[in-house]
Amino acid sequence: MAVKKDEYFDELETMSPAAREKHLNRKLIEHINHVYKYAPAVKKLFDRAGISPDQIRTVKDLEKLPVTRKTDLVDMQKANLPYGGVAAIPPEDIERVFISPGPIYEIQPSSIKWFARSFWAAGFRKGDVVVNTFTYHMSPAGILFHEAIRDCGATVVVAGTGNTDLQIQIMKDLKVTGFVGTPSFLMTVIKRAEEMNYNLKRDFYLKRAWFTGEMLPPSLRKTFEGDYDIDTYQAYAVTEPGGAIAYECHQKSGMHLMDEYVTEIVDPETGKQLGPGEIGEIVTTQLFNKNWGLIRFGTGDLSSYITEPCSCGRTASRITGIVGRAGDAVKVRGMFVVARQAEQVIMSFSQVARHQLVVGRRQHRDEMTLKVELKDTSADKAKLTEGINKKFQDTCRIKIDKIEFVVQDSIPEEKQGIVDERKWE
Q1: Fold of 335-420
Q2: Would you state the pLDDT for residue 6?
Q3: How far is the C-alpha of 182 from the C-alpha of 123, rounded, in Å?
Q4: Where are the chain's structural domains?
Q5: Where are the alpha helices (DSSP H) in 310-379?
Q6: What is the reported pLDDT for 23?
Q7: Is-contact 209 231, C-beta < 8 A?
């Protein structure tokens, strides 16, 4: 059966494997040549690897280059403000800058029409009223998702994060049909609406939800779809390389990789590419923004991929979901918490002897508990709690839910840092 093409579901998504390989190799060569010439950090990367741009002719050739991680990018930008040599454009020509935790300064083009593919695949169309609950402040999520939703023709409600009661009023008053945010926040909204004696299916018009920023457990998807008739979709997005890398279609059998990126699944220790079905780290090189020279960015997320055709008609390989983390960063409520960064914040308080940041789940919501051993138990715990909370939130852009002061020597030396106790069932 012929696949119907349109502005968002076109030949790019339905290429044959041979055509896709040729397309990605051609775009990769163009991108490498440009950023090598104009981004100083890229030239340093190649020089350290002992190779030249003409040695990168295929996706397989990327193995010749090391993986760059979030901590590397933070260090690069600290040493060479503001962009760490990654920008391949004169400062006066930069259209807009976003800030991610670190801080990391990211430049973005104003047009990312390709991003709309993920929302189109989720069914967003003209006539939909979509509440966007991602932040519009500093980080790229809010405005990028906003523009992509508009490209699909839908109306965007600029809600941003938090204010659960107000979100409920907005969704009811404006007859919102679509939700964009994290699954835990949507569940928070639903439970609060029920506490306010609303019946979601009777009193609201919500029909579909698009999630990113945290995993969607199968049990929670079953609740959304079975109990509330909300059609749910996931996308996998990473801010540093520029946005959504993979997204679900209506088959919901894995997330299709976008052809605006070269996405590899690699051995986290060696950087060597792995084959279908093998679990490794997602490493990505964006091809749509010629002025951002971030090559082989290691996301720290572990997944595998499949190449079998999808009955939706899209032919790109699909990642099978995120199964864990490599490295020292953990995603909590849609934000990466980097172990080294968290440690720097917490240990900057002289009263702290040891610490352990425990990430768990309660009622489908990520929770962080900081356990602290004090050098002197007579320290002012209330003042210290306030200080740590403020500095942690200012630096890591996420709030600690609870701080517990534990007895001395209760945190073993090897158990310091981040402990992820979440179970995705």
Answers
A1: GMP Synthetase; Chain A, domain 3 (3.30.300)
A2: 56
A3: 18
A4: 335-420
A5: 339-346
A6: 96
A7: yes
